[in-house]
Amino acid sequence: MGTTTPPRTLAEALRARDDESLAGLLRARPDLLTPVPNDITQLATRAGTRASVVRALEHLDRFALQTAEALAVAPDPASYETLLGLLTGDGEQQDGEWQDGGRPHADGHGERHDAAHTRTTAEALTEAIADALPAALGTLREQALVWGEDERLHLVRTARELLAPSPRHPSPTGLGPTVAEATAGMSPGRLQEILAAAGLTATHDPVSAVAALTGLFTDRAAMAGLLDTAPAEALSVLDRLVWGPPYGEVTPNPAPPVRWLRDRGLLLPVSARTVVLPREAALHLRAGRAHRVPEPQPPAVEAVAHRDPQAVDSAAAGQAFLAVSTVEELLKGWNGGGPATLRAGGIGVRDLKRTAAALDVPEPVAAFWIELAYAAGLVASDGEAEERYAPTPAYDDWAELPAQERWAHLATAWLAATRTSGLIGGQDAKGRMLSALGPGLDRSAAPEVRHRVLALLAALEPGTAPDPGTVLARLRWERPLRGTAASPSPAASGSSSPTGSGSDGDTGDLRTRIALWTLNESELLGITGRGALAAQTRALLASGPAEAAALLAPLIPEPLDHVLLQADLTAVAPGPLERPLADTLSVLAEIESKGGATVYRFTPGSVRRALDAGRTAADLHAFLATHSRTPVPQPLSYLIDDVARRHGHLRIGAASSYVRCDDETVLNEILADKRASALRLRRLAPTVLAAPVDPASLLEGLRDMGYAPAAESAEGDVLITRAGAHRTPPRTAPAPVPEGPPVPDTTLLGAAVRAIRAGDAAATAPRKERDQDADAPPAPPGSLPRTSAAETLATVQAAALTGSALWIGYVNAEGAASQHVIAPVKVEGGYVTAYDHTADGVRTYPLHRITGVAELADDATP
């Protein structure tokens, strides 16, 4: 501003900032940038709106928030010394205050700590507060929550209203209203009675009476003398109210201790049954502190174990490979079409149970894998009439990648996802159950919490596993919520019953749950190993997925090209198998158990499935001989030959359906079997039976009877049935739901600051006063000029000839009014072409949309 005059408003304080400081404000509070403010005044107005202030307060750390809370209960304006005193106290702390937050009991028999240790702790905390306060105050100033010099600090009005105490909204500090606020409306006679009971001289008016009572409560010596005469039971009541809530209920005929306090103004009536401890009295009892336990420094993240970093990386790599295999197994199970889509979206509870059973994991873990595949764009709804979930085309591309790159893709998607699988099974605000892949699972805070949890783990030494409790405590300090948890105080015996909330509690439950889910999901996904952050994850956070995949690759076991065949019709895969081998074996055999080694079991049904897929018995014998490190057991060879000999002996076609067989004896057996009655078969020829059911039902029915029929085409050829590969149309991964507007980049910030500065120059540029009617009221500052069309045209033409600048009011086609400082260059055809100092460019304006013009003062600078 070019002057040392202290700012009188937030707008003036913002106007005095440099461009870098304004850009910092817009970066810290991006909601102020949408849309770009026209000028500094509009920016200040928007920064003081309730929604914007609430968002800014919710992004403060605990000590910055405590600083704002202290300013909310301080006089407006307050000095830096006053603010520091509210955070550290006035030096009159009693022994034990910093430990338990309360004053000693009146009878002196309360629990005491070692005096020397207490003083040392108090001095250390006071020093820490003094060191941390400039940074906290700087944060509040940067975010335009506080403005003014150190001698006159102002908390913006909206923040004061949100943080200051009121009957409906207790202060987070636990302080009540001031004496002046609590006695508003009290009769003058009652005020004089309070003064007399407190030993004060009577006054002539209520204002001086309130001032006298306030002076008593803020005078340390006088207040101590008054409390020395109080009954012990009265001091016990004050102990219950001092740290909040400051309100208590009283009976119509309160006990003597409560009457003693009420008569002397230490408890002031709020209603017929409610009293409050005034703020000045509470601050005396608190030794001048606004908060019970100031927290200038963040709590440290403590370690529970130190492990070998190589062991951590290996454990995380093994879990990462298992994560990739689990997602692949999940989508293989949905290859021919997954669960049906519920009408409201998502999959049903039974489908989730079946998926969990197929993956051999608990349902919450199955829900996590399903949501992870969805977030990675590997599964989606197919959008058909009978809508089902199925793999997307992107899954086929993902499946062809090396295992380390597949993991990096999953981990990157998890970090950015706002959908939180931990909510599945709960209820939304309307009482509807939240289902996997259904709506209502987005929580915009999830990515920020995940990144912050991993950043805290990354700050530890490699191989260090943190204590989850200290991680949660650190997160709560970094982003506390303004609300306080309900903490009813015990009732005073026979007198008052304070109710309300505690002074410094948290209701921040969602962020805590997300942090806990993050720690659990990190272990499942291979982000951490044995509780510690893996090296590949550090690379993922610092350098990206390519570097993480490169570090993970040597730690993942090489796929095997062989299995070990056993005599009990099983095959053991001692490690991960190559993809073609695993695909073929999953068709030829059933997976019996998984783990470090996978056990496959051969059954007649599985062998028939391989034959249905187009394999011959010779193919299966050759496949097993090639890929087994042990000889093919004779029982397995017999099983393949026996199933192959019977496979295709019966043929199924469309008649509605028919059965044909060269062996009449087999058809006679089928007709004589009672189990075939439901198929309603009849003989068409010695070797042909017909049925009114469809071929698929007939095929299934005969297989249930123990036969091995094969389907055939209209030409009589055997139909080869391969596993279906149902895919959705191309789908993109779900977009994360952002938490508020995105942080603007440097280019946008620079352009926005220039636009705001130019708009402010137009709004505040001094202009020449025109002759006007003496009776006409002066135009308010910043109002749009009003001139006639002829006067507008003449003024613009004259400015174009002289090259001078004008201040104009303009209304665009949408009816939005604005103001600009322009230097006209050309006027013709009803348009003026000018250099617009506001927009920093040449613009053309229709003359009929210019509401008026005014010449700038000679010393004005556009």
Write the layout of secondary structure elements.
Layout: H1 10-15, H2 19-28, H3 40-47, H4 50-58, H5 62-73, H6 80-88, H7 97-100, H8 115-142, E1 146-147, E2 154-155, H9 157-163, H10 179-182, H11 188-197, H12 206-218, H13 220-228, H14 232-241, E3 247-249, H15 256-263, E4 268-269, E5 274-276, H16 279-285, E6 303-306, H17 309-333, H18 349-359, H19 363-375, E7 379-381, E8 389-391, H20 393-399, H21 403-416, H22 446-458, E9 464-466, H23 468-478, E10 497-498, H24 510-525, E11 528-529, E12 532-533, H25 535-542, H26 545-552, E13 564-565, E14 570-573, H27 579-588, E15 590-593, E16 598-601, H28 604-612, H29 617-627, H30 634-646, E17 651-653, E18 657-660, H31 664-672, E19 682-685, E20 688-691, H32 695-704, E21 710-711, H33 746-764, H34 789-802, E22 806-811, E23 817-828, E24 831-836, E25 841-846, E26 850-855
Parallel strand pairs: 17-21
Antiparallel strand pairs: 1-2, 3-5, 3-10, 4-5, 6-9, 7-8, 11-12, 13-14, 14-16, 15-16, 17-18, 18-20, 19-20, 22-23, 22-26, 23-24, 24-25
